[in-house]
Write a structure and sequence with these properties.
With 290 residues, the chain is an alpha+beta fold. Helices cover 18% and strands 25% of the residues. It contains six helices and 14 strands. The longest helix is centred in the N-terminal third of the chain and has 20 residues. 51% of the residues are buried.
Amino acid sequence: MKIATSFLVASVSLLAACSGAGDASFGDEAGATNDTNETSEQALGKPRASLDHPDFVRKMRDPANYRVNREPGAQESICGIDDLQHVNSYTGTLGVSVAFVNAHKRPVGAMETSPTSGKYCSGTLITSTLFLTAGHCVDSTTVGDYVSFNYELNAAKTALLAQSHYQITGIVEDSLGGLDYAIVRLANNPGATWGTTASLATDPAVGATLAILQHPNGEPKQIEAGTLASISGNYLRYGNIDTEPGSSGSGILNSAGRLVGVHTNGGCTASGGTNSGVRMSKIAAVSGIL
């Protein structure tokens, strides 16, 4: 009954977000905001298209029938040359140090249907039992899935390290305020082993260093880093941080290792564009946890 009640609360919250705000993130994208640190395409006379992930758009339109694509899609993208590096063989050349990666990699996990299945999304432990990911990574069948920690290659990239798997027992928050984020509860207190990552409800400055620890294509954990290109509506945008399918839900870290956003979707090409993620400042304004 505890699991069922948890999902019921999350479902009611999601329906309220949909009915009360409509496509809330569309509204923020379409109009100018008063955020001091925001760069506005409209201020430059350019139309502002929605940055919402297509799966999240589908979820907001019909949350009861939405199902996560557990075979990662193609919305995340490479910005020019793919320079993702595996965490245990990282060379320290992407803008953050090897020590930074070692200090912040452990709370990052990969979502999976079962301990023997492939991975489909990424996320971060924010308390001993709560795991932050993208809203489009969660649906009414998520309870019973798992999160794997320590899904990494060794330094020689010849073998996987031993993984630990924790079952998802409830959905605590889901897409509140029409934002593409979710918080799920995990069994057996994984934070006691793998640690947690603190969040910061203040947007980084344009040009600030950002890092994303992620499971691109459902692969072992990797690091990519770059800088904040702009802030647009609900989203941080970055044009030099590679992501791939399966990276959705990864935490966006500032130079101090604090969560300042949740990566949600791609927009990079070989010659330009930006990837993006939901701002923690926006999430913190509606969340009862962050």
